[in-house]
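Why do we care about 3D structure at all? Because function follows from shape, and shape follows, mostly, from sequence. That is the central idea of this module. The next example makes it concrete: a single protein chain, its amino acid sequence, and then its structure expressed as tokens.
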Amino acid sequence: MIEETSERTVIRAPQTAQETGVSSNLLEDLIVKILFLQGEMSLHDLTRHSGLSFAVVHELFDRLRKEQFVEVKGMVGLAYRTALTDRGRARALELLSLNQYAGVAPVSLQDYTRRVRAQTVSKADVHPAQLLEAFSNLVIDSRVLERLGAAAVSGTSILLYGPAGTGKTSIAEVLPSVYGDAVWIPHAVEVTGQIVTLYDPGLHERVDEALPHDSDARWVLCRRPRVMVGGELTIEMLDLHFDPIGKLYSAPVQMKANNGVLIVDDFGRQLVRPEALLNRWIVPLDRGIDFLNLSGGKKFEIPFDLFVAFASNLEPAQLGDEAFLRRIPNKIKIDYLGCDQFHEIFRRVCPKFGLIYDAEVVDHVIDLLTRTYNEPLRSCQPRDLARQISWKARYQGYSPTFDLESASEACRNYYDYAAGALADISSLQIQEKTPATRSHIEEAAFRRKEGFDPI
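And the structure:
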């Protein structure tokens, strides 16, 4: 039962086995397996372990007792303490040979579908203030930020593309934090008698707040999910994974990401061809539903309610045809930086590595990158160069210093592979720049004085 409170929607615990939406036989079998694996337990212990209400556990206990699968071993307060009989242990061994799941009771597929639809990501509130706060640690053009906000509101999909090192992955990783609310995720879902485990503490962030004592413990209140996959993504990861030992299923990545964000990093670099992945996602992206297969061949439908963020170094035309690209309504190119943005990133990065920001040194770095090494300015470079300086200082045993010499050496280490036959930069070149270099730095300093909005 679902109830609206002043703070959020609360799912009240069913008070009868019928209200759970799951067959009583499955729940009885679950109690038998729990008692076999845990040993003698009180009904309160069974309530905590199964996630069912005390009323439902007592109802199941009465049935199992009549069938002589369990017996009373004593009392704990006003609650029975129970254990399996010999017949119950024999039944447990039989059940465990079919399915070893003995965790929190599952919810029905119908209830899961209804709940996902009710907390759809496409209706999550996203406002400019939330976006500014979420991306406050990144330097992003205000026009790009505005487009990211519109994409997040859509709750559909986005393609972030552009050259390597321009911050596409960083932007994609921040997108989930734009959503400030929470959603309910079940421990497991029952599908025609089969168990599909869903809640994953390694992926889902549980909300640390007190819930009403009568809330349904089969559901976990979590931040909207953030699931990230990269080059390891395969077609098999998009379907149910069957554990031949436990004889149960675990949900695929898109099901674990429902009501949240699925980030596909380095799209186009997976072992499987991008066309195969795109074909697999055409229907889900277009219709908001997906189909999964049980090992026996039975197919069932689940909601596909997630914001899919693709990040790729490839041009859109290299990733798929027009039919697929049309189903990704938001496409944003993340390009190289201007000098002012490059300065702002350095200004933020330096303190993290114990360095003192120096505009003249940054101008020198810009000159080396763009003129000496013929490299465009990328958002990853300030952090990577600061690391180079920090690593050497730690190795040599002195405090890192952000000066012309250390910056030059960091650039040389970082782009040595691209330098070709470049001569070493002498101390004279560091201290006495050529007129062309001075002109370049003076121009950059002038642009910086004009000011800019880093967000």
